[in-house]
Amino acid sequence: MEPAPSYDLTLLLLLGSRTMIDTLHKHLAARGYDDVRPAHGFAFHRLAPDGATGNELAEFLDITKQAASEMVDYLEQHGYVVRRPHPTDRRGKIVTLTERGWSCIRETEAILSHLEGQWATIIGAKRMEELKIDLRQLVTVANGGFLPQKFRPTW
Fold first, then answer.
1. Closest residue by Cα to residue 120 from 132, 135, 136
2. HEC profile for the chain?
3. What is the number of structural domains in the chain?
4. d(CA 57, CA 67)
5. pLDDT of 127 over the 60 cut
6. What span, in angstroms and rounded, lies between the C-alpha atoms of 101 and 33?
Protein backbone atom coordinates (compact mmCIF):
# COMPACT_ATOMS: atom_id res chain seq x y z
CA MET A 1 0.00 0.00 0.00
CA GLU A 2 1.32 3.44 -0.94
CA PRO A 3 1.66 6.04 1.81
CA ALA A 4 -0.99 8.72 1.82
CA PRO A 5 0.05 11.96 0.12
CA SER A 6 1.31 14.53 2.57
CA TYR A 7 1.43 18.28 2.57
CA ASP A 8 2.82 18.54 6.10
CA LEU A 9 5.91 20.44 4.94
CA THR A 10 3.84 23.19 3.31
CA LEU A 11 1.60 23.52 6.32
CA LEU A 12 4.51 23.51 8.78
CA LEU A 13 6.45 26.11 6.78
CA LEU A 14 3.40 28.37 6.67
CA LEU A 15 2.65 27.88 10.37
CA GLY A 16 6.27 28.52 11.29
CA SER A 17 6.38 31.69 9.21
CA ARG A 18 3.08 32.92 10.61
CA THR A 19 4.21 32.21 14.17
CA MET A 20 7.43 34.19 13.68
CA ILE A 21 5.71 37.12 11.97
CA ASP A 22 2.89 37.32 14.54
CA THR A 23 5.39 37.22 17.41
CA LEU A 24 7.56 39.83 15.67
CA HIS A 25 4.63 42.21 15.31
CA LYS A 26 3.58 41.74 18.92
CA HIS A 27 7.09 42.81 19.97
CA LEU A 28 7.22 45.66 17.45
CA ALA A 29 3.91 47.02 18.75
CA ALA A 30 5.27 46.94 22.30
CA ARG A 31 8.27 48.99 21.09
CA GLY A 32 6.13 51.69 19.49
CA TYR A 33 5.73 50.29 15.97
CA ASP A 34 2.08 49.32 16.22
CA ASP A 35 1.29 50.89 12.84
CA VAL A 36 3.42 48.58 10.68
CA ARG A 37 1.99 45.47 9.10
CA PRO A 38 3.74 42.34 7.85
CA ALA A 39 3.56 43.52 4.23
CA HIS A 40 5.46 46.68 5.18
CA GLY A 41 8.46 44.58 6.19
CA PHE A 42 8.68 43.24 2.65
CA ALA A 43 8.62 46.81 1.35
CA PHE A 44 11.34 47.87 3.81
CA HIS A 45 13.46 44.98 2.53
CA ARG A 46 13.32 46.44 -0.99
CA LEU A 47 13.78 50.05 0.09
CA ALA A 48 16.94 49.34 2.07
CA PRO A 49 19.61 50.50 1.48
CA ASP A 50 19.16 52.95 -1.40
CA GLY A 51 15.42 53.33 -1.94
CA ALA A 52 13.31 52.42 -4.94
CA THR A 53 10.75 53.92 -7.26
CA GLY A 54 7.10 53.09 -6.78
CA ASN A 55 7.26 50.92 -9.91
CA GLU A 56 10.27 49.01 -8.59
CA LEU A 57 8.52 48.45 -5.29
CA ALA A 58 5.37 47.22 -7.05
CA GLU A 59 7.41 44.79 -9.14
CA PHE A 60 9.33 43.51 -6.11
CA LEU A 61 6.14 42.95 -4.09
CA ASP A 62 4.30 41.60 -7.14
CA ILE A 63 1.43 44.03 -6.58
CA THR A 64 -0.15 46.72 -8.73
CA LYS A 65 1.42 50.16 -9.00
CA GLN A 66 -1.72 51.55 -7.37
CA ALA A 67 -1.37 49.19 -4.39
CA ALA A 68 2.31 50.11 -4.05
CA SER A 69 1.42 53.81 -4.18
CA GLU A 70 -1.20 53.34 -1.46
CA MET A 71 1.33 51.50 0.68
CA VAL A 72 3.91 54.26 0.20
CA ASP A 73 1.25 56.87 1.08
CA TYR A 74 0.51 55.00 4.32
CA LEU A 75 4.17 54.56 5.23
CA GLU A 76 4.89 58.20 4.44
CA GLN A 77 1.96 59.39 6.60
CA HIS A 78 3.32 57.29 9.48
CA GLY A 79 6.88 58.58 9.11
CA TYR A 80 8.63 55.47 7.77
CA VAL A 81 9.46 56.66 4.26
CA VAL A 82 9.78 59.84 2.27
CA ARG A 83 9.46 60.50 -1.45
CA ARG A 84 12.37 62.45 -2.91
CA PRO A 85 13.21 63.61 -6.42
CA HIS A 86 14.80 60.79 -8.41
CA PRO A 87 18.52 61.47 -8.92
CA THR A 88 18.48 60.64 -12.64
CA ASP A 89 14.83 61.02 -13.70
CA ARG A 90 13.58 64.60 -13.22
CA ARG A 91 9.95 63.48 -13.41
CA GLY A 92 10.34 60.52 -11.09
CA LYS A 93 10.40 60.04 -7.33
CA ILE A 94 12.42 57.66 -5.24
CA VAL A 95 11.09 56.30 -1.97
CA THR A 96 13.64 56.09 0.85
CA LEU A 97 13.47 55.08 4.47
CA THR A 98 13.44 57.73 7.17
CA GLU A 99 15.22 57.34 10.49
CA ARG A 100 11.99 55.84 11.86
CA GLY A 101 12.01 53.31 9.01
CA TRP A 102 15.63 52.37 9.71
CA SER A 103 14.89 52.15 13.43
CA CYS A 104 12.03 49.75 12.70
CA ILE A 105 14.39 47.63 10.61
CA ARG A 106 16.96 47.51 13.43
CA GLU A 107 14.28 46.50 15.92
CA THR A 108 12.98 43.85 13.52
CA GLU A 109 16.46 42.40 13.06
CA ALA A 110 17.03 42.24 16.83
CA ILE A 111 13.65 40.63 17.50
CA LEU A 112 13.94 38.06 14.72
CA SER A 113 17.48 37.19 15.78
CA HIS A 114 16.23 36.64 19.32
CA LEU A 115 13.30 34.51 18.14
CA GLU A 116 15.55 32.42 15.91
CA GLY A 117 17.85 31.92 18.89
CA GLN A 118 14.91 30.71 20.95
CA TRP A 119 14.01 28.19 18.27
CA ALA A 120 17.66 27.10 18.03
CA THR A 121 17.62 26.45 21.78
CA ILE A 122 14.67 24.11 21.28
CA ILE A 123 16.14 22.03 18.42
CA GLY A 124 19.83 22.80 18.86
CA ALA A 125 22.08 25.26 17.06
CA LYS A 126 23.48 22.62 14.71
CA ARG A 127 20.05 21.43 13.61
CA MET A 128 18.89 25.04 13.15
CA GLU A 129 21.85 25.76 10.88
CA GLU A 130 21.21 22.55 8.94
CA LEU A 131 17.53 23.47 8.60
CA LYS A 132 18.43 26.86 7.12
CA ILE A 133 20.95 25.30 4.74
CA ASP A 134 18.42 22.68 3.62
CA LEU A 135 15.62 25.21 3.12
CA ARG A 136 17.94 27.53 1.16
CA GLN A 137 18.93 24.61 -1.07
CA LEU A 138 15.34 23.48 -1.63
CA VAL A 139 14.13 26.98 -2.47
CA THR A 140 17.11 27.65 -4.73
CA VAL A 141 16.70 24.42 -6.68
CA ALA A 142 12.93 24.91 -6.98
CA ASN A 143 13.60 28.34 -8.51
CA GLY A 144 16.07 27.34 -11.20
CA GLY A 145 19.22 27.82 -9.13
CA PHE A 146 18.35 31.22 -7.70
CA LEU A 147 16.77 32.53 -4.53
CA PRO A 148 13.66 34.48 -5.55
CA GLN A 149 14.11 38.23 -5.63
CA LYS A 150 10.43 39.04 -5.22
CA PHE A 151 8.35 38.83 -2.09
CA ARG A 152 4.62 38.68 -2.37
CA PRO A 153 3.06 39.76 0.90
CA THR A 154 0.49 37.21 1.95
CA TRP A 155 -1.21 39.14 4.66
1. 132
2. CCCCCCCHHHHHHHHHHHHHHHHHHHHHHHCCCCCCCHHHHHHHHHHCCCCECHHHHHHHHCCCHHHHHHHHHHHHHCCCEEEEECCCCCCCEEEEECHHHHHHHHHHHHHHHHHHHHHHHHHCHHHHHHHHHHHHHHHHHHCCCCCCCCCCCCC
3. 1
4. 10
5. yes
6. 10
What is the domain range of residue 134? 19-142
Please give the pLDDT value at position 155. Answer: 56
Average pLDDT estimate for 12-38: 96
Task: Say if residue 132's pLDDT is above 60.
Answer: yes
Q: What was the pLDDT predicted at 89?
A: 84
The type of residue at 81 is V
State the distance between the two ends of the chain, measured CA to CA, in whole angstroms: 39
Tell whether 86 is covered by a domain: yes
Confidence at 90, pLDDT banded by 50, 70, 90: confident
Domain holding 70: CATH number? 1.10.10.10
- Global confidence as pTM: 0.88
Q: What is the mean pLDDT of residues 64-89?
A: 95
- Say how many residues make up the chain: 155
